[in-house]
Amino acid sequence: MMIPLSEAQNHVLERVSNLRAMAVPLDECLDLCTSAAIVAEEAIPPFDNTAVDGFAIRTSDLEADPAGTVRLRVAGTVAAGDPPSEIAAPKTALRIMTGAVIPRRADAVVMVEDVIVEGDYITFSSPVSPGDNIRRQGSDITPGSLLFPERTVLRAAHLGVLASVGYAKVPVYRRARVGVISTGSELVDTGRPLNPGEIRDSNRHSLMAILSGAGVEVIDLGVIADDPEALRKAFVSSAADLDAIVTSGGVSVGDFDYTKAVLSEVSGGQMRWMQIAIRPAKPFAFGTIGTTPVFGLPGNPVSAMVSFELFVRPAIKKMHGYLDLHAPSLAATATNGYRRHRDGKTHFVRSLLEVDESGSLQVTSLDKQGSHMLHEMSRSNALAITPDGDGFDAGDRVMVMQLDPLTSRH
Ligand code: AMP
Ligand code: MG
């Protein structure tokens, strides 16, 4: 009996939990999620400084002399990184470089472009007000302020912010270590010619890559033949050291599809083998060995990748502590028909999602939809979600799952 996609997704998500919280070095935190609220202990900027290259002045010195000109003498230069300086005498200015500390008694900085320099003297070509071009201490971040709430996913700018306030380590949910196995006696890796009946293992390579992109530390567990003893050894020896295992092949209804039988044995009956009302990727197995989740993806290369997106990626996000587990679907206009027949399944149609000149999304189905046709999938960047029924006509609004970056349609 086929079960709805949402039931299978919930089954998985109810059985994975976020990994342990720990302090991780800043530069290893990309795509991880904070396990506590992050509070700033330092101010940004840490001191009043200049936003421009120019001249630090006192606006009270800007009174015209009897001849009617406003002139200041340049008494020195201050660079970024110099210790605090001061304007020591009336009617003097200091040359100052972007990022340098505002000298004591200065209350404005005039841009180089807004003064006329003659020898040691400057005159002004535009009006100046107190505070001009000064970046105040704490104007970006004040000490004690909340930088990020708990469960913020750390991207590049977040890491920059954390560095700017002096965090060497950050409290996060730790990164998952995930092992990848390909199962099948027909599979060989690159490096030698194929014998009759053999094919090359592609799933391990695409799955390892997609896992790295999901922020996981990937462990290559190699190819295992359709042999119950070899499979048992591979699963049992690796499960204890890993946060999850992703395996492909052997979960269907073939005579030598041992993966699901072996997993059911080594998981102590915790393995559930499902037939899901989707195409591709109908067969799927999930269970735990000890506490380690095992994802049994179908062997067909397109199915394996679609199954990854629907089941493994949301589970990894949950392990990493993310709150948003499912990427939102986008609405796009179909440029061609998405014709299908009624079969009780939701179809995930390999498609090209493009942005037209007006900025609108257009989606086009690709020709070869066989679940073994990975080359065609490599041309696609999205899956069009086609519910059970007759499909869509060109011009209809279609919901799509984006997988890879958008391209432009010309
Ligand atoms: P299975 O799920 O084991 O019945 O495999 C379904 C189909 O996918 C068969 O044609 C397999 O040869 C193929 N297949 C299984 N695993 C892989 C793999 N790692 N790389 C490429 N094709 C595979
Ligand atoms: Mg197989």
Protein model, in words:
The protein is α/β, with parallel strands linked by helices and 410 residues long. It has four domains: 5-19 and 175-319, Molybdenum Cofactor Biosythetic Enzyme, Chain A; 25-43 and 142-173, Molybdopterin biosynthesis moea protein, domain 2; 49-135, Molybdopterin biosynthesis moeA protein, domain 3, CATH 2.170.190.11; 329-408, Beta-clip. 18% of the residues lie in helices and 31% in strands. The protein is built from seven helices and 29 strands. It has a six-stranded mixed beta sheet, with no helix packed on it. It has a six-stranded mixed beta sheet with strand order 16-13-17-21-20-18, sandwiched between helices. Strand 20 (283-289) and strand 21 (292-297) form a beta hairpin. Helix 1 packs across helix 6 (301-319), helix 3 (203-213) runs parallel beside helix 6 (301-319) and helix 4 (228-239) packs across helix 5. The longest helix has 19 residues, at 301-319. It is elongated and about 105 Å long. The structure holds adenosine monophosphate (AMP) and magnesium ion. Magnesium ion binds next to loops.
